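re: ur question from yesterday

yeah so i grabbed the chain u mentioned. its 167 aa long if i counted rite. heres the sequnce exactly as i have it in my notes:
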Amino acid sequence: MKVYNVIFPIWMLLFFPPVIFIALAGNFVIDSLVIIACFFLFKLTNQGLGLKTFYKKSILKVWLFGFLADIIGAGFLFLVLMVGSGLGLPYEIEAGIAYDPFSSPVAVVIIIISMLISSFFIFLFNYKFTFRRLIVEKALRIKVALTIAIVTTPWTFLLPTKWFYNF
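ran it thru and got these structure tokens back, copy pasting raw so excuse formatting
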């Protein structure tokens, strides 16, 4: 007999100790690399910024807003599971969202929607807050915020939980 409802989906575990510390550290490293790449890719030296200044003034906001956006996307998945369960969402879709996204095309679509929600908020937070004073030129700010949003999308939402549990 297997008790599936006590096994958390991988995307949910990212927000609980001690895994949250690993997720935060991993996000920090990835965000750092993306910020540095954006600096060179979009030639931000032409904006009168040095790499050190750009990095120092943006990394904490990019990192914290990115994690907040991931929480918003995971919250959407959690809400779909809670509300869907009460509305009679088929078990195959619930199981797909929680344990094996690729077992159900509908689950994949729902998870991709949650990833898009996270990406939208990553873009919005960085465009409106993080880079508002650092990158004055709007088109350039859009490019940088969009690049960060795409690269730092919570791709881990697509990882099947069954890869990590023996069931």
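noticed a couple things. Helices lie at 10-13, 19-41, 51-86, 91-98, 105-130, 138-151. also The two ends are 10 Å apart (CA to CA).
anyway ttyl
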